[in-house]
Amino acid sequence: MSGEESNSKAIDVTPNKDGGVLKEILKPGEGEEGPWQGDRVFVHYVGTLAEDGSKFDSSRDRGERFAFTLGKGEVIKAWDLGVASMKKGEIAKLICKSEYAYGEQGSPPKIPPNATLVFEVELFEWQGEDISLKKDGGIMRRNIVPGEGYQTPNESAVVDVHITGRVNGTVFDDRDVKFPLGEGIEHNIPEGLESALEKFKKGEKSTISLSSNYAFGSAGNAAIGVPPGASLVYEVEMRSFEKAKESWEMDQEEKIEHAKACKDRGTNFLKQDKYQLAAKQYKKIIGLLEYDSGLDDEKKAESQAILLAGHLNLAMAYLKMSENSLAKEHASKALEMDKKNVKAYFRRGQAYLNLGEPNLAKNDFEACLEVEPNNKAAKQQLQLCVARMKADRLKEKQIYTGMFEKFARQDKAKEAAKASNKDVMAGDVGDWNTADEKNDSEKSEKIC
Questions:
Q1: What is the signed CA dihedral for 43, 49, 52, 53, rounded to 10 degrees?
Q2: Up-side HSE of residue 351: CA atoms within 13 Å toward CB?
Q3: 314-356, pLDDT tens digit by residue?
Q4: Residue 59 burial (CB < 10 Å; 0-12/13-18/19+)?
Q5: Predicted confidence band of residue 442 (pLDDT cuts 50, 70, 90)
Q6: What is the pLDDT of residues 136-159, one digit of tens each?
Q7: How does pLDDT run across 12-34, given as a tens digit for each residue?
Q8: pLDDT tens-place string over residues 67-125
Q9: What is the spatial distance between Cα 263 and Cα 156, in angstroms, rounded to a whole number?
Q10: What is the dihedral of CA 103, 106, 107, 112, to 10 degrees?
């Protein structure tokens, strides 16, 4: 088959139809759907030079499929365009002019400058883009409509989205919703979807697939029809967003005002037993005020007071969530700022007690009482520490008593076994002596 005949069956897959990438289908694929921008695609390919047909690369020769993310510039332009037009199982020939391949420079030593390349490509499968932080496949995105520009929302940005959520193919959520990132759970937005929204551009429309642990977990969400342990699929359109001001964009006084607002929101969440949301707000305070500079004495004192409250309230939130090590850490940081802070001693004491360290907890509750001798709560906790320590000592005593009794029994058994062996050995020797004496007697009689 001549080059002209082959090219006559090819279609131009370039956006402006300039003939830069021609595709000829050698084997049709299955179905109507192909991969989307952002999908991870898996292919085999053989690359040759159009000029002389010499092969310069082949995944088949290596015996290993090649994978890349479509539309992200990980491969030459011709591949992003050509593979995007293919169906599952399709085998196609891509004829790629140099401006869609390696251009004027080529790729020495195998690909010369301004070279037209020919690839035979087989598309096996594709999967969405894994945008989970751990890359565990728990949050997968498939892009339907690309967004505009490069900006994406940051934490606390107010996003305006339309979502359609499905569980096992059934729609359970279909609405417009506007909320600040970081408070999605208040609007029945699961953690994984909120995390995905941080990567959306304005105008973007994508499907987001969430495994159960990134959705509503083992509890599900009965209020909106999500059963326990369910995986979810959302179709999401980012209509608009308003970015929150970053901390580095604020001066110190702005940071203080913003931290005050975070403190108020955190306190409201804490009163509503929404401890995770409260913790997020208190962590923002620490991020804003941990390193202050250029403040006069009055403003510095105000900043330090809010920061201290952030650590104290964060310790409280972590205690409520049974995150005792983190509660201890932030109570300790509060004590670094204020060595006589009763709340810090009390909350660290509670954390120590929950961690099974009543002796350390006792020290903290005693420190509370040194500052506030009439603190009834500290007195009660101190009594609890003493009782816990007494119980621990009794338990320890029982363990050691049991161990000593066990060792005593073992020693007694060893002594008994040793005595028994000694008796057996003694009997053997006596019999042997008796026999010898008898023989000697017989010998004596014969001699005589």
A1: 0
A2: 25
A3: 999 999 999 999 999 999 999 999 999 999 999 999 999 999 9
A4: middle
A5: very low
A6: 999 999 989 989 999 999 989 999
A7: 999 999 999 999 999 999 988 89
A8: 999 988 999 999 999 999 999 999 999 999 999 999 999 999 999 999 999 999 999 99
A9: 14
A10: 150
Catalytic residue numbers read 45, 56-57, 76, 102, 119
CB 352 within 8 A of CB 358: yes
Q: How far apart are CA 277 and CA 164, in angstroms?
A: 24
Identify the weakest region by mean pLDDT among 126-135, 399-408, 437-446: 437-446
The token pair at 219 is 């509890």
Cβ neighbours of 61 (radius 10 Å): 9
Q: Tell me, what's the pLDDT at 423?
A: 56
- Burial readout 209-244 (b: 16 or more C-beta within 10 A, e: otherwise): bbbbbbbbbeebbeeeebeeebebbbbbbbeebebb
**pLDDT at site 294:** 73
Which two tokens mark 327?
Answer: 């509660």
Say what angle helices 342-354 and 358-371 make with each other, to 10 degrees. Answer: 160
CA distances from 211 to 3, 191, 417 (A): 49, 11, 63
Which residues, in sequence order, are bridge partners of residue 233? Answer: 166, 209
Phi-psi label, residue 142: left if phi above 0, alpha if psi -120 to 50, beta otherwise: beta
Which helix (H) or strand (E) covers residue 320, if one does? Answer: helix 297-320
Alpha-carbon distance of 34 to 97, in angstroms, equals 24
**Three-state DSSP class for residue 113:** coil
Which residue, among 342, 378, 376, has the nearest Cα to 362 in the 3D structure?
378
Closest CA to 340 of 364, 359, 321: 364
* pLDDT tens digits for range 363-380: 999 999 999 999 999 999
Q: CB atoms < 10 A from the CB of 161, how many?
A: 22
Handedness of CA 77, 81, 84, 90 (dihedral sign): negative
Single-letter amino acid code for the residue at 23:
K
**How far, CA to CA in Å, does 82 sit from each of 23, 35, 72, 86, 428?**
7, 11, 14, 7, 96
